Structures are given as structure tokens and as C-alpha cells.
Amino acid sequence: MLKRVLVKTVMKYKTTLIMLLVLLIILCSILNREQVKVVENISNINTGKKFIEITAFIDSTNWATAKHDVIKAFYELQSKYGENSKIIFKTHPIKDYMAWLSTEKLMGQLVAQDKRSPEAILTEVKNLAPVVVISILDKTKGDTIAKGALRELKGLIMKTSQPEHITAFIDSIPGEMAANTIVEEPFVK
After folding, report:
1. What is the SS3 string spanning the chain?
2. How many domains would you assign to the chain?
3. Which CATH number is 79's domain given?
4. Domain match, 36 and 116 both
């Protein structure tokens, strides 16, 4: 009996119920589309615009006394991440270190305010060589530093670094990639 009453009620309001069901489906699809848009926008932020730079600054004049653990760390990172298109490896002479550092968003101001002579700075920097630096290169506002790209220093090791610091430096790459939403783009044939 209850079944018969329910069927009669549903049949009586069938058109209204169908319209409500269609409206509910439309409403859900609109709300779901907005959520998908938000997720897409979040996942596409800076896609292809952020890179990790691993840069080695080497002094060939003190190569014999250089701490080769630092150089080994650079080559270890290069062999481990060399195929990753989001990690850029570079090698420069140590004399380029201060010029490079001046392009970093926070250190650049300090380098510009340094009143010491370039020779005094170079002598001090040479005593630190080799130096390997991890930085984030954000090309969101431009393709090069001169055109608005930003560089942010994330870590460095040098001749005076202890073995545990070198290990932590090597282990920091996946964390920096995750923290800065740097995702290697899939290989497309």
C-alpha cells in the first residue's frame, strides 16, 4: 500500500522531479567545473618558468689544494639530475662569483653596498673555492635576469664545508623542487 501511494505521488510530480534533478545535475557540474578550474590554475602556476640552478665556481689556481668533496658533490648531482630539464648545471671561474651573486634578489643589494676593492673581494672568495651553489631561477617575469627573471639562493657548499653539510646539500634537491613547485615536464615525442 505504501508502495502504491509513493508511486502515485512520484507519478503526479514526475515532471517537477525531473526538472529538479536536471537542475541539480547542472548545478553540480557548474560547481565542479569551478573547482576543476581552480585546481588547473594552481597546477599551472609557473609551469615551465622555474628552474633549479646548480652552479660550480672553481679556482684553477688552487685546484691542487681544493676540497674535492665539493667538486664530487657537484658531479654527483650532475649524474643524478643531469637528464632533468628543470635543473640547470653551470660551471664558472671563481672570479665570476660576485657578479653572479649580485644577480640574487637579496644578496645583490649587499654586494652592491660592499665598499671593498674588487681585488680584496676576489682574494677572499678565492679562499672559499670551490663553491657550489643551489638557486631557484624564476623566469615568470622574464627569460633572463636582465629581462626580469629572479634568482634566489637556496644553499651553498665551499671548501670549508663539513661532510654532513655536503650530504645535506645533495639531499636538498628534491625538497627544493617540491617547495618551489618545480616539476619536470613529461617527455613528448
Report:
1. CHHHHHHHHHHHCHHHHHHHHHHHHHHHHHHHHHHHHHHHHHHCCCCCCEEEEEEEEECHHHHHHCCHHHHHHHHHHHHHHCCCCCEEEEEEEHHHHHHHHCCECCHHHHHHHCCCCHHHHHHHHHCCCCEEEEEEEECCCCCCCCCCCEEEEEEEECCCCCHHHHHHHHHCHHHHHHHCCCCCCCCCC
2. 2
3. 3.40.30
4. no
CA distances from 35 to 39, 102, 115, 136 (A): 6, 42, 53, 30
Q: Does residue 26 carry a pLDDT above 60?
A: yes
Q: Given pLDDT bands bounded at 50, 70 and 90, which one contains residue 32?
A: low
Question: Are residues 55 and 38 part of one domain?
Answer: no
How do residues 50-105 score in pLDDT, each as one tens digit? Answer: 889 999 888 877 665 555 788 888 889 999 988 888 888 998 888 887 778 778 77
Rounded to two decimals, the pTM is 0.66
